[in-house]
Amino acid sequence: MSPSMHAASVPVFQQMLTALSGVLTKAETHAADRKIEPAALLQSRLFPDMFPLARQVQIACDFAASVSARLAGAEVPAYEGGDATFANLQQRIAATLAFIGGLDAAKFEGSDAREVVLRPGTPKERRIGGQAYLMAYGLPQFFFHVTTAYGLLRHNGVEVGKKDYMGAY
Predict the structure, then answer these.
(1) Three-state SS for 129?
(2) Tally of CB atoms within 10 A around 117
C-alpha cells in the first residue's frame, strides 16, 4: 500500500523544516561566537546569480506551505513577516510548521488524482495531477532550497553535518 498524500508530504516538510531551524540556530551561534555580522551569512550565496540564504529559507517554507495547502484544498497562506534576521527566519519556519500541522489529514484524501493549477491565469499556467505535483515538483523544489540553505551555511564554516540536515526521524 502506498503512503497517503498527507504522509508523503506534511511529515517530510515538518522533519526538514525543524532540522533547518536547528541549522539556523547553529548558524546564529556561529556568527555570534566569531563576531561575524549575521547579515554576512543571511545574504551569502555560492554564486552571484543565486538567491541568498534568507531567500532559500523563505522559498523552502513557501513550498512546504503551498504544496500542503493545495493538496488539502486549502488556501495558500501569505506570510507577512520579514526575513532580515535569524529571528525572522525562525518565525517564518514556526508559522509554516503551525500551518501545515493544522491541516486535517482527511482533506488530503483523493489529492493524488486532484488537478493542481500552478500560476493560474498567466502565460505560465500549468495543470498537473496531485501525485505528480507532490513527487515530481513540490518535494524536489523544497529539498533543493533546504539543501542549498544547508550548503551555504556549511560553506561558510558553520559546523553542521548530515545529522543536522536530516533532523529527527
Answers:
(1) strand
(2) 12
- Picking from 68, 72, 79, the residue whose alpha carbon sits closest to that of residue 10 is 68
Per residue in 47-103, pLDDT (tens digit) is 999 999 999 999 999 999 999 999 999 999 998 878 899 999 999 999 999 999 999
Q: Judge contact between 57 and 149, C-beta under 8 A.
A: yes
Residues 6+ apart with CB under 8 A from 101: 10, 14
Instruction: Determine contact, residues 9/139, Cβ cutoff 8 Å.
Output: yes
Q: Which amino acid is at 103?
A: L
Residue 127's Cβ-count burial label (10 Å; 0-12, 13-18, 19+) is exposed
Cell of 23: 541549522
Q: 70 near 127, Cβ under 8 Å?
A: no
For the chain, domains (ranges, CATH) are: 5-162 (1.20.120.450)
Question: Given CA atoms 78, 84, 86, 88 in this order, what sign does their dihedral have?
Answer: negative
